[in-house]
Amino acid sequence: MIYPVRQPLKISAAVFLVVLGLLFTYVFFREDAAGIGSSGSGVSYSGSWPASVGHASYGALIVDSKGLVKDAHRLPTADSFLPHFKAVTEMKGMTMDEAKSGCTWLYPAAVTFTFDGSDADWKLNDRSDMELDRQRNKWHEFIESQLLPFEEYKERFDGRGIIIVAGNEKSLKRVRVILRQLMKLKSELPIEIHFWGQELNESSRNALQELWQPNKMFFNDLSDPANIAKTKFNPYLINYQLKTAAVINSRFAEPFLLDSDNIPIIDPAELYDSATYREFGTLFWPDIARTRTNNPMWPITNTKCRMDEYEQESGQLLVDKRRFFYHLQLADWFGNAQPDQYYSKFLLGDKDLFRFSWHALKTPFGSPARWLTSVGTLTPDGYYCGHTFAQYHPDRDDGRIAFLHGGLLKTLSKELISWHRETNGGIFKAYKKHPHDENWSVTTNVSIKWDIAEYLPNKPEGMPVASCTDFYDVEPKILEEILPGFEKRYEEIGGYWMLDA
Question: pLDDT, tens digit, for every residue of 434-457?
């Protein structure tokens, strides 16, 4: 019997060519009309993407066979993320062992982790995969059924501006320092102060308004039920959760969040034009420590531990709410919606709520090319105490310092500050810059230490001990080399207000 072999092959080839032609037409149409097409190893997503995904400036996006958008940060609006979120919540849950496999340091003991000095149970004993699944399902449910719709709230924010959470006396004095510095920088950005209840009276508001440009100073009471994101306040604790609420509730569509102890060195308006922000729609700056390999946040957010990533330092943060309105809601949920404060066991304050929300929703975020530099005091005998982080402009081709965040400056006593100011050239005298600050995978010998100030003449009994950052393998250099004139500027803008308090 003669089998008809060749004829079916001709038919199959013809069918193949027709299918290939149809596929080409479909992909071309999707790329042209919807902005999503096949690229690299990705394939076209065949679900019902909103028309807004086709924004021409974002080009073709890479979507895998399960609907995950590889470069999701390029989606142009909050609602264009919804099909992507569906794919995120359908991902297979990651085990603790799978999450831990992402970090393979040869000498883990040499890595600075958050909670290094803690005996937290999760640090000593890995959380069970059953618990991780349960917690992951909770935030999945939030994404699937509890998000506030962007369309309903999008008219409540517009434009760009700086937001600061402040209200008590000390934070308001720090805000005045910021305002004077912004005036020196000739910044024209509007400013919005977020506070709670009665902590900011009318007299304090008027005093701040007098320091800034007419009709460019605004205030928002976070206890007002009219706010989009509802939050809470504990008078006995540090209320980190107010920061995520402030970002969501801000009148600005592109709010720049600035801590009250953070002094801009460049006009923050420049950040909006940076290549990094234009690409990612976010700017998250790094902290000094890394997230522990077995931190439950890795598997809960279906993210492998990363060796090229520091924890986030949220003394400054920039985000486009028109694109990331839902991401911010998840960050707020992680910080506010857990009655047992579950996530506070693994995260310090608000800072990593943002980073892990973006990880959870599989969305890349923008970060500066350079790791932070430590800035602080230096005694004649060479003792260094880093009390401030110098954070950089995000773009690799712009090496300027953008902010000085004095997170540990508040731990220095009046006596110590006075001595440095009067006899040692000021508190902004030296810096330590790591030689591999553009390679975040390199392990850095850094930690927080105590300055008991044995060098201080006539040291008062019972004087508080200061906290300092130190890069132990780096020699201190004089700050004038990279930031000339800042100590004088600090005097001019009233930075030493604490000595008069």
Answer: 999 999 999 889 999 999 999 999
